[in-house]
Specification:
Elements (H helix, E strand, L loop, with lengths): L1 E14 L2 E14 L3 E5 L6 H8 L8 E10 L2 E2 L5 H7 L4 E4 L3 H4 L6 H12 L4 H14 L5 H4 L9 H13 L5 E5 L7 H18 L2 E6 L2 H7 L2 E6 L2 E7 H6 L4 H8 L48 E2 L5 E2 L8
Parallel strand pairs: 3-8, 3-9, 6-7, 7-8
Antiparallel strand pairs: 1-2, 1-4, 4-5, 9-10, 10-12, 11-12
Length: 321
């Protein structure tokens, strides 16, 4: 069952330097209960895609020039502001990148969590407080009653991230957007946070859009992966198939750049740099950095083509794995 369908979505931003195409004809689908990884370098458009789903793109300077975002048969791009306020936090929730800046420093954790409940649920104050305690307990927060009375600066990074997860899930949404939820956390805490997030999503049958540039996170938690480069989707595949048989040269570069567990091999890096989207190169945007490019790559934009039933890739020079 398809829960979210993004079709041909294009978003651009205009500033004093010119107009930059941040998303270019992006198409993605998510099923009910699926964990989909959205992977790519910083600045490729992952967070913009997430904010567009929630209607958080300021217009201007942003401009949604084409596309549809269908959530449960409702086009979010045509939805009223009032309706989007009902959807945000209730049907679609988001965990933002940095929990310290996402939480308000002048209000307690309890104030902020109860505000979310109060906006979307018609419950009494004591019931809202109990919901907050129960949710914090589900994310394995020690002494949740005490945590509700604390301010964000009194919590560690891992505790703040658990608060963000609890706030995102307290109204039992159907879709959770996790925008690099383990940024700035050490490896041990990162593993704990991911385990909690995956367990709760499976238990509640919540779809998760996991935005990250960490291929290790993708391998650990995702069912399918969409690889994004310079605002375009270049490969989509089940996670096991992507790691065992990557077809796009950029995907291969990302996987090759994962550090070796023994630390013996030299760390691989993709040559060149990401193109500027104000004046992008013609044809395939990856071709200036690609070692297998052909003449067609210089002038023609590749479309996503099916390699197998579940594996699609946008590349003129598909190399056998």
């Amino acid at each position: 069952m398809t829960l979210l369908d993004i079709d041909n979505l294009s978003v651009s931003f205009t500033n004093y330097q010119g107009t930059s195409s941040v998303l270019d004809r992006v198409s993605l689908t998510m099923g009910k209960g699926e964990i989909l990884g959205l992977v790519g370098e910083s600045g490729c458009g992952k967070s913009v895609a997430a904010k567009t789903i929630l209607g958080l793109i300021p217009q201007p300077p942003g401009n949604i020039s084409s596309g549809r975002i269908t959530f449960k048969n409702e086009n979010l791009l045509k939805t009223s502001t009032r309706r989007m306020r009902q959807i945000r936090g209730n049907e679609i929730s988001m965990i933002f990148q940095e929990p310290m800046s996402s939480l308000n420093p002048v209000f307690t954790v309890g104030n902020q969590m109860q505000e979310v409940v109060g906006i979307h649920q018609r419950v009494k104050s004591w019931q809202a407080n109990q919901m907050c305690v129960d949710m914090l307990r589900q994310v394995q927060m020690p002494d949740p009653e005490t945590v509700l009375n604390k301010y964000p600066h009194q919590l560690s990074g891992g505790m703040r991230q658990r608060v963000m997860i609890a706030m995102a899930l307290i109204c039992d949404p159907e879709l959770l957007i996790a925008d690099e939820p383990t940024t700035a956390l050490d490896v041990t805490v990162q593993g704990q946070v991911l385990a909690i997030l995956v367990a709760l999503s499976r238990e509640r049958n919540i779809s998760v859009l996991m935005i990250t540039h960490d291929m290790g996170v993708v391998a650990q938690v995702c069912d399918r992966v969409a690889v994004m480069y310079a605002g375009r989707i270049v490969e989509v595949a089940p996670v096991k198939q992507l790691f065992s048989s990557p077809r796009h040269p950029y995907t291969r570069g990302l996987i090759a750049s994962i550090p070796d567990i023994d630390g013996k091999d030299t760390l691989y890096s993709i040559p060149g740099s990401v193109p500027t989207m104000i004046d992008p190169p013609p044809g395939c945007l990856f071709h200036p950095r690609c070692s297998v490019r052909i003449k067609t790559c210089d002038c023609l934009v590749p479309e996503l083509c099916s390699i197998t039933q579940d594996h699609r890739v946008a590349c003129h020079a598909i190399v056998d794995p």
